[in-house]
């Protein structure tokens, strides 16, 4: 049995003068151990610390010399000597040298697309709620800048039916042109990650407008647009082979159904609903375009030719759909449909996602653009867990935490137990309680800048939770330490983990308020399986997921 031990240190720097606390005992002990009790740490000693304590096996004495030079320069010290204890303590806060996660892509990227969790957006063009917000390319740009790899567009005829709009159909949302969205996708597709961008289209077009979409995509994307030479893929291509390419995923659709013929009772738009429909689950737009042989004949051939990932929805018994063989495809299920199917056919879902792609989307009553718990999809191997990126809350923080893995490239290799079968065709069962693989032990200290009242020392406490498979879910919190800018809780929490590969660690700092709701101080979420050993500088984020300036925790991770 392995053990994770990590400790969190922190200090709040304010506009007025505050005496900074000294290094915590753990830092002092590490400094003394690697300096042999001396008052400064040499380049060779720092190199040994980085390799033995931090696990940075590629570190060289030359690297250590450069680190010491930069650290002394930042402190305004002109010296050829080593680091003092105080300078060593400050060095540990430097995120560039002591990040908790690898900044480079390090997963095997040569497996089929179905072997990866993919950072996926839902209704990517909406700026706010699902009913009345503006449609724009701005949220698409923001999503791509954050590393989202799957962009969803709902495409409809414009008011004169001679061009294409992106709009949430049969709602009060205002449209944006498809051409503007595609141009922005081309410009920002690879600013964060070089791995492929997948555009999922919810299509409500006539064949002549489908042909126009094909021409538009071909002209705007040019050689960036990838499409297969065959209509029947038996295995998806790899992310590595698709670097720098843009793919299209949609259903070969049937003839456009005039939206004027649809009344409120027929509203089936994914994620949309009217006030009268809020009590019922609203289905996906794909329900409008059932995938049948007639649709193949009615759609524009040049449009169908551009589809790399063919999409579909269950037309009958879900178990039959999950067991279907032949060409690989994408299947879409609402969060509710997935939870219901997993109760009866969990093993079939896992087997399906080993070759095919499963997309999960929010139920239609989430009109405020809220989100669901992403693990309901991940633990069954669902690759595209589609989220409203313009929303906020704990669920989106979990999503952001998962995709900090693998260098933040938007593709995270699924654990082997989700892509392999046993000798008797058995597959992973997330609801089965397994033996504990690792125990995560946490000890807390705290330091940061903050927006709290400058003249009233805060009453801080820390909430920590692990999310993952049901057996690993746990919540803890420290005691409140009153009137102290530099609280040291010195509390340990143990988290036994049965499936650490799917576990996320969420940390939230709050300030206790006796009279009102406790104030938010910062948060972060990290994939447990990616944590690097040793002392690590971990930035905190605001409630919307934006990094807070100069606000970070110094954490210690130990793996045994």
Describe this structure in words.
With 560 residues, the chain is α/β, with parallel strands linked by helices. It contains 14 helices and 22 strands. The protein has an 11-stranded mixed β-sheet. A 5-stranded mixed β-sheet has the order 18-15-1-22-21.
Question: Topology of this protein?
Answer:
Layout: E1 2-9, H1 25-35, E2 40-41, H2 43-52, H3 61-74, E3 83-84, H4 85-92, H5 95-98, E4 116-121, H6 138-145, E5 150-157, E6 164-166, E7 176-177, H7 178-188, E8 197-203, H8 207-221, E9 246-250, H9 293-298, H10 301-304, E10 307-312, H11 318-323, E11 330-334, H12 335-355, E12 357-361, H13 375-378, E13 384-387, H14 394-402, E14 411-413, E15 438-444, E16 460-467, E17 474-477, E18 492-497, E19 504-511, E20 519-527, E21 534-541, E22 547-559
Parallel strand pairs: 1-15, 4-13, 5-8, 8-9, 9-10, 10-11, 11-12, 12-13
Antiparallel strand pairs: 1-22, 2-3, 4-14, 5-6, 6-7, 15-18, 16-17, 16-19, 19-20, 21-22
Helix pairs in contact: 2-3, 6-7, 7-8
Termini gap: 8 Å
Task: State the share of residues found in helices, binned by percent.
Answer: 10-25%
In total, how many beta strands? 22
Report strand %: 15-25%
How many helix segments? 14
Radius of gyration: 26 Å
* Structural class label: alpha/beta
List low-confidence stretches.
2-17, 255-297
Can you list the strand order of the major beta sheet?
A: 7-6-5-8-9-10-11-12-13-4-14
Give the overall silhouette.
globular
What average pLDDT do the residues reach?
A: 86
Biggest β-sheet description? 11 strands, mixed
């Amino acid at each position: 049995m392995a053990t994770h031990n990590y400790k969190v240190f922190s200090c709040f720097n304010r506009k007025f003068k505050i005496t900074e606390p000294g290094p915590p005992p753990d830092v002092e002990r590490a400094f003394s151990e690697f300096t042999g009790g001396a008052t400064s740490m040499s380049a060779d000693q720092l190199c040994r610390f980085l390799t033995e304590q931090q696990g940075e096996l590629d570190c060289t004495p030359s690297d250590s010399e450069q680190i010491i030079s930069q650290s002394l320069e930042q402190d305004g010290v002109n010296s050829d000597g080593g680091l003092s204890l105080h300078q060593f303590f400050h060095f540990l806060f430097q995120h560039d040298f002591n990040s908790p996660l690898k900044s480079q892509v390090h997963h095997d990227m040569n497996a089929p697309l179905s072997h990866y969790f993919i950072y996926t957006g839902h209704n990517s063009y909406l700026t706010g709620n699902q009913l009345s917000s503006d449609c724009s390319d701005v949220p698409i740009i923001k999503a791509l800048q954050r590393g989202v790899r799957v962009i969803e567009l709902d495409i409809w005829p414009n008011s004169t039916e001679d061009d294409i709009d992106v709009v949430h159909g049969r709602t009060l949302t205002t449209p944006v042109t498809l051409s503007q969205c595609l141009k922005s996708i081309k410009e920002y597709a690879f600013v964060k990650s070089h791995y492929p961008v997948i555009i999922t289209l919810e299509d409500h077009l006539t064949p002549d407008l489908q042909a126009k979409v094909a021409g538009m995509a071909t002209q705007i994307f040019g050689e960036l647009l990838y499409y297969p030479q065959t209509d029947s893929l038996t295995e998806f291509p790899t992310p590595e082979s698709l670097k720098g390419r843009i793919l299209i995923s949609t259903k070969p659709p049937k003839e456009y159904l005039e939206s004027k013929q649809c009344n409120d009772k027929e509203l089936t738009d994914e994620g949309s609903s009217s006030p009268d429909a809020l009590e019922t689950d609203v289905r996906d737009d794909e329900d409008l375009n059932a995938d049948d042989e007639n649709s193949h004949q009615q759609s524009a051939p040049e449009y169908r030719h551009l589809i790399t990932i063919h999409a579909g929805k269950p037309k009958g018994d879900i178990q039959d759909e999950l067991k279907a063989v032949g060409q690989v495809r994408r299947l879409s299920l609402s969060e509710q449909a997935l939870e219901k199917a997993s109760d009866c056919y969990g093993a079939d879902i896992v087997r399906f996602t080993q070759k095919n792609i499963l997309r999960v989307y929010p139920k239609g009553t989430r009109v405020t653009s809220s989100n669901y718990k992403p693990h309901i999809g991940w633990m069954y191997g669902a690759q595209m867990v589609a989220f409203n990126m313009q929303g906020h809350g704990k669920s989106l923080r979990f999503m952001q935490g998962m995709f900090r893995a693998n260098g933040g490239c938007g593709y995270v290799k699924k654990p082997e137990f989700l892509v392999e079968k046993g000798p008797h065709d058995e597959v992973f069962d997330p609801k089965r309680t397994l033996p504990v693989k690792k125990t995560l032990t946490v000890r807390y200290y705290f330091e940061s800048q903050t927006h709290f009242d400058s003249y009233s020392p805060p009453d801080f406490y820390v909430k920590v939770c692990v999310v993952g498979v049901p057996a690993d879910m746990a919540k803890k919190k420290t005691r409140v330490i009153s009137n102290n800018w530099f609280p040291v809780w010195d509390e340990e929490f143990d988290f036994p983990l049965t499936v650490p590969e799917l576990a996320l660690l969420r940390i939230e700092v709050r300030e206790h308020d006796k009279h009102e709701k406790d104030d938010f101080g910062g948060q972060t979420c990290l994939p447990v399986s990616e944590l690097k050993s040793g002392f690590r500088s971990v930035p905190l984020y605001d409630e919307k997921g934006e990094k807070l300036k100069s606000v970070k925790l110094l954490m210690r991770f130990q793996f045994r």
